[in-house]
Amino acid sequence: MNGPERRKYNPDNRTGYEYVLLADHLAELIAHGDWPAGSRIPGERALSEEYGVALDTVHKATKILRERGLVQTLKSKGTFVAPRG
After folding, report:
1. CATH number of the structural domain 18-81
2. How many Cβ atoms from other residues are within 10 Å of residue 63's Cβ?
3. How many other CB atoms are found less than 10 A from the CB of residue 78?
4. What is the DSSP string of 6-73?
5. Which one, of 5, 81, 6, 68, lies nearest residue 41 by Cα?
6. Residue ranges of the domains in the chain?
7. pLDDT of 23-66, one tens digit each?
8. What global pTM score does this model have?
9. Distance between start and end Cα atoms, the chain
10. Separation of alpha carbons 54 and 73, rounded Å
11. In sequence order, what are the residues at sequence separation of 6 or more whose Cβ sits closer than 8 angstroms to the Cβ of residue 50?
């Protein structure tokens, strides 16, 4: 069965934990303006499907982004790109 094509977040085949590699990729999207400050990023389930990874992998990657100060999560609202300071 062919599903939707998965986005690549590690095209250079770097080694490391998948959630860290995914967090680095998502951080690049923020840095390049693909996800501007204040924008809502896709939900964890949507990112899991988009990248073909486990939901826990996305959850850990999102946690890393929060720890880096790149996103803010509002309960029942979603996760948003933090303003640049």
Report:
1. 1.10.10.10
2. 14
3. 14
4. PPPS-TT---S-HHHHHHHHHHHHHHTTSS-TTPBPPPHHHHHHHHT--HHHHHHHHHHHHHTTSEEE
5. 81
6. 18-81
7. 999 999 999 999 999 999 999 999 999 999 999 999 999 999 99
8. 0.87
9. 46
10. 20
11. 6, 7, 42
Extract long-range pairs of 10-15: CB within 8 Å, 24+ residues apart. none
Q: Which residue has the tokens 């951080």?
A: 27
Place of tokens 């890393």: 64
Which residue's entry shows tokens 């390049």?
32
Extract the tokens encoding 83.
């303003």
Which residue has tokens 């486990």?
54
